């Protein structure tokens, strides 16, 4: 089978990446995605949390806590001293770290931000930010002065300005500076008329003239002559995506549709796994596995349909050599598999998930270490839907079971893992949604660490969204110091937003930034510059990693 492609470019580098677990056709899981790039928050907030503490400098305008002392006429500021005597003023930098304001029959104002002050008499203004007014006569600074931090408008000297500064989860500090995890502008992505959902992405750092790019997988609705869904793979420039795409590959599967679901990139190449959707012509069939290799210049290296593998892929791992996949029955029936392919897309072996009386396994995530050991995570689902337990197993490079663990959530009836990642080569980090009812309502995020050698649990912790919101855990990626990044969607009725968290090796949440959006389908951490990229069905959202 050939894949039609257009103009090409030269690829010279790449980096290993991972696409996340996501809802798949035919899955009977209780997860429901209500993604929307224009969704709004309750009360208009776009929230971000930071467990590491966000430095604050108080309200930047005059208010409670300010003092005026009438004695003499001396004003001292941090890093700057202004003294006024009889209409003359002198300024000395770096004099004092203490702020004192005194005057005689005059008004003195103190602020932690920039200040523009108004007075009917003489006035001396002092701040820890920028002093904008020192006067011995009438003050006329009611208009035309420098802007104030907190007015909701980003002005010169400000990195951000979120108005009242009430939301500590949006990456903008009360000092109008960007904090850890600050959201950046979404990538500019071309959108043809038939564009449906974005599905996955694979980055190519320094791929052409030291510039980076991303290969993105998207579904195109009603693209084929009989209304088939087509798979589109296309290039997006980094860091902003504002350069024209150099190529795209678009194809459907004869009379059937073709949908990309997972992607991995390494050394200037990418592998995509997806589904040949046969449901329209063969109701109840779901579809079967599709696997393709693509060069960074848009060339098709291999493309294979596996009609005897009715699998909807939920996650994939590729190290540049062999390819590891996990997935479930494409038609929603019983059955879950771990599969290993060589780098050319040939099947090496498959492993059937264990099944017991009254329960079955659904796979959600897969990881592979440098030695070729494969780790698969999913849920042990009770047939009566009364509970879901975390299921984690290790397989040798030859597909032999090494160990497995089945653990209930310590706090909830249901634990639905979303992904697993190897951290530091000796530990495994898992993210999951935890809840008590049979639907994802009032759910909280769970995340746990296990030993890669035997599955021993190191810790299991949880993080709760604000009241009224539920969370849907998504993909994870390794954090450079042994922790993990987690992508998640938050929902409150018809409102949705995107959340990205950074967790350290001990389970502490370093930051948790949110922005308008929805469920995260793919999550990648790479650089330079080091950033986290979260893919939703509508956008690619970058975050500062520090």
Automatic annotation (TrEMBL):
Keyword annotations: Disulfide bond, Repeat, Signal
InterPro entries: Myxo_disulph_rpt
Lineage: superkingdom: Bacteria
Sequence ranges of Low complexity compositional bias: 35-145
Annotated region described as Disordered, given as residue ranges: 18-162
Family matches, as NCBIfam families: myxo_disulf_rpt
Protein name per Swiss-Prot or TrEMBL: Myxococcus cysteine-rich repeat-containing protein
Organism encoding this protein: Nannocystis punicea
Lineage, top ranks: Bacteria, Pseudomonadati, Myxococcota, Polyangia, Nannocystales
């Amino acid at each position: 089978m050939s894949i039609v492609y257009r103009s090409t470019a030269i690829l010279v580098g790449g980096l290993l990446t991972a696409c996340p677990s996501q809802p798949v056709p035919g899955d009977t899981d209780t997860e429901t995605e209500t993604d929307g790039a224009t969704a709004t928050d309750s009360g208009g907030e776009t929230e971000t949390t930071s467990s590491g503490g966000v430095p604050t400098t108080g309200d930047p305008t005059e208010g409670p806590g300010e003092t005026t002392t009438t004695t003499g006429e001396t004003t001292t500021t941090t890093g700057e001293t202004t003294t006024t005597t009889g209409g003359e003023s002198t300024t000395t930098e770096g004099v004092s770290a203490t702020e004192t304001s005194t005057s005689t029959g005059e008004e003195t104002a103190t602020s932690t931000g920039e200040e523009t002050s108004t007075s009917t008499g003489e006035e001396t203004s002092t701040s820890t930010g920028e002093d904008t007014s020192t006067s011995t006569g009438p003050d006329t600074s009611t208009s035309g002065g420098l802007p104030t931090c907190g007015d909701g408008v980003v002005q010169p000297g400000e990195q951000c300005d979120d108005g009242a500064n009430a939301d500590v989860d949006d990456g903008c500090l009360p000092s109008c500076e960007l904090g850890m995890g600050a959201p950046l502008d979404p990538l500019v992505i071309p959108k043809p008329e038939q564009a449906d959902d974005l599905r996955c992405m694979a980055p190519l750092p320094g791929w052409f003239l030291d510039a980076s790019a991303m290969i993105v997988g998207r579904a195109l609705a009603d693209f084929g002559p009989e209304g088939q869904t087509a798979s589109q793979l296309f290039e997006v420039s980094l860091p902003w995506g504002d350069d024209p795409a150099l190529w795209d590959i678009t194809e459907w599967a004869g009379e059937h549709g073709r949908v990309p679901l997972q992607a991995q990139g390494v050394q200037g190449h990418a592998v995509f796994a997806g589904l040949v959707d046969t449901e329209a012509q063969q109701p109840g069939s779901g579809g079967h596995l599709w696997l393709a290799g693509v060069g960074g210049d848009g060339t098709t290296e291999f493309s294979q349909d596996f009609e005897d593998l009715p699998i909807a892929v939920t996650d994939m791992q590729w190290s540049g050599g062999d390819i590891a996949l996990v997935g479930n029955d494409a038609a929603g029936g019983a059955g879950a598999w771990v599969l290993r392919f060589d780098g050319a897309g040939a099947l090496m072996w498959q492993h059937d998930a264990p099944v017991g009386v009254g329960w079955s396994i659904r796979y959600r995530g897969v990881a592979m270490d440098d030695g070729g050991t494969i780790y698969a995570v999913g849920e042990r689902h009770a047939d009566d839907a009364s509970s879901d337990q975390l299921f984690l197993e290790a397989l040798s490079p030859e597909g032999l079971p090494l160990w497995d663990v089945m653990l209930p959530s310590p706090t909830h009836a249901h634990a639905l893992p979303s992904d697993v990642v190897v951290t530091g080569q000796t530990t495994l980090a898992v993210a999951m949604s935890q809840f008590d009812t049979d639907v994802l309502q009032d759910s909280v995020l769970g995340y746990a660490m296990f030993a890669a050698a035997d599955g021993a649990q190191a810790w299991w912790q949880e993080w709760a969204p604000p009241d009224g919101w539920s969370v849907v855990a998504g993909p994870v990626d390794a954090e450079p110091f042994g922790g993990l990044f987690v992508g998640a969607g938050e929902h409150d009725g018809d409102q949705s937003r995107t959340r990205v968290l950074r967790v350290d090796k001990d389970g502490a949440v370093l930051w948790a930034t949110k922005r308008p959006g929805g469920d995260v389908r793919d999550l990648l951490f790479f650089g330079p510059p080091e950033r986290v990229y979260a893919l939703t069905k509508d956008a690619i959202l970058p975050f500062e990693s520090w």
